[in-house]
Write a structure and sequence with these properties.
The chain is of the alpha+beta class. The strands form 13 sheets. Strands 25, 26, 27, 28 and 29 form a five-stranded mixed β-sheet that branches. A two-stranded antiparallel ribbon has the order 1-4. It has a two-stranded antiparallel sheet with strand order 2-3. The protein is built from 16 helices and 29 strands.
């Protein structure tokens, strides 16, 4: 279709849909319609709808002619020349593009679309509605505002009571209303516990004065008259708190020593005289120290004493004659007697009960020597072998060794005590020592026999060493280093 206003210049709109005709006419006829107003669009059109893009020519009034009584005529009946400037048509089409644009979901047409230049798009032709806006903290989405044009909390949302700051003293916003829409005291505020009067066994709880609530359970706490102090467990009513607020035994009751019976350490308990005594301590550790006393079962006796049977459950402070009695461990044995270790815990100690004889009282027979070894003399296993010293005469030396001279008069039972090298016996019986001023060399000119019958003795720090003489192959008498011997007796 092509239309024009008989009194004005023509404007051409290329429209994709026939519905655009209605929108175009409406936008020009009602230019002052608010942008937020939703216009209904027809859902069907006539069956004779053309498949070609329709064109609408709408006259816009000239500045010098304000009369709107325009006559619509078809372009063909006018007889005008259709060869207008292509540039003019393009400019007019671009200027009126928003008239034919249909806004997408969440957008609404801008006012005066005939005055909007640019491309036909939501961004150019439309305003966003509240449907697209997300309310921030302190505001709540309101579906009734979805079609309103806007993009702020003020335009699109309801303020919630969580940001309302106008509650008067003694009132506040309860948690149940923090997310509710409201901007007034009536909508948001309720009394706090500071305005509530507690009755019965209830009394005001200072810690809840600022809680927004209005019941005994929410605003008050029980008074001590409602608390049962069980004497059987060691609790008695506190004389100064019977009418005060409180709902716990810790506050309303006093603890007596009986309360701490189970807290006493092992081997301690509470004496009868203290069981109903009110404790002054506030801490359990201090109360235990105040109430609990040591029993004999945990008492440590002095060395040589043991706990007396029958007194283990008595208290150290009050037990008669103490908790302990003397044992053999504290007994001193007479001379040459030794304490029997297994009898240390025997009570009623004496030499007979606690002691036994030692080797110091043992008589050694012929062939044995009385020992002077203090360790051996203190032994209590009595026998010749344990108490006496044997002579070397009965000792058997190993190979290369022989008994020392006068072995029967030497006490001992070890090779180091009884034996010497067989070479020592050979030197004593077949050789003679040179004098202190002589050496083996002094016998070089007297013949081999005389040289071979001599040996030289050295005393080095008390150690006796003997070296036999020997004639070498050039007839010099020298010491035989291969036969050096030490530890010999009587050489």
């Amino acid at each position: 279709f092509r239309f024009k206003h008989s009194l004005g210049s023509r404007t051409v709109l290329n429209m994709k849909q026939p519905q655009g005709l209605v929108w175009a006419l409406t936008a020009l006829c009602v230019p002052s319609l608010p942008s937020a107003t939703k216009l209904s669009k027809p859902s069907t059109w006539g069956d004779d709808q053309s498949s070609e893009d329709p064109q609408l020519v709408i006259a816009t009034p000239r500045e010098e002619n304000t009369e709107l009584g325009a006559e619509l005529k078809t372009a063909s009946s006018e007889g005008e020349d259709d060869d207008d400037s292509t540039a003019d048509l393009a400019e007019e089409s671009r200027t009126l593009a928003c008239i034919s644009h249909i806004c997408g979901s969440g957008f609404a047409p801008k006012a005066n679309p005939q005055n909007i230049t640019g491309k036909a798009s939501d961004a150019n032709c439309c305003n966003p509605t509240c449907r697209l806006f997300k309310c921030t903290d302190g505001f709540k989405t309101q579906p009734l505002y979805d079609n309103n044009v806007g993009a702020t909390n003020k335009e699109c949302c309801d303020a919630t009571c969580s940001v309302f700051g106008g509650c008067e003293e003694g009132t506040g916003v309860p948690p149940s209303k923090s997310n509710a829409a409201g901007t007034s005291k009536a909508e948001c505020c309720e009394p706090k516990c500071s305005r509530h009067s507690c009755i019965g066994d209830w009394t005001q709880d200072p810690s809840k004065r600022d809680v927004v609530a209005a019941s005994n359970e929410e605003c008050c706490r029980k008074s001590c008259t409602s608390v049962h102090c069980d004497r059987s467990t060691g609790l008695i009513p506190h004389p100064d708190r019977s009418t005060r607020s409180g709902n716990t035994t810790d506050y309303c009751c006093q603890k007596v020593c009986k309360y701490y019976s189970a807290s006493c350490p092992e081997d301690m308990g509470i004496m009868d005289s203290k069981r109903m005594q009110v404790t002054k301590a506030s801490m359990t550790l201090d109360a235990v120290a105040e109430c609990c006393d040591a029993k004999c079962s945990g008492h440590t006796c002095a060395d040589g004493y043991v706990l007396t049977e029958g007194k283990l459950n008595e208290y150290v402070k009050t037990v008669f004659n103490g908790c302990c009695e003397k044992t053999c461990a504290a007994h001193t044995c007479s001379a040459n007697l030794s304490k029997v270790t297994d009898h240390d815990n025997h009570t009623q100690p004496s030499d007979e009960a606690c002691c036994e004889k030692t080797c110091a009282l043992w008589s050694c027979p012929h062939g044995w020597f009385s020992s002077t070894n203090s360790t051996k003399l203190a032994l209590t296993t009595l026998s010749n072998k344990t108490c006496c010293e044997p002579s070397c005469q009965s000792y058997t030396c190993s190979a290369g060794k022989t008994l020392k001279p006068s072995a029967a008069s030497i006490p001992g039972d070890a090779e180091s005590e009884c034996c010497e090298s067989t070479q020592c016996k050979d030197l004593r019986e077949n050789y003679s020592p040179v004098s202190a001023s002589q050496n083996c060399n002094d016998f070089s000119g007297v013949g081999n026999t005389e040289c071979a019958s001599k040996y030289k003795v050295f005393n080095t720090s008390g150690v006796i060493t003997a070296v036999p003489c020997i004639m070498d192959n050039i007839s010099i008498c020298t010491m035989d280093d291969a036969r050096v011997v030490s530890g010999c007796t009587n050489i």
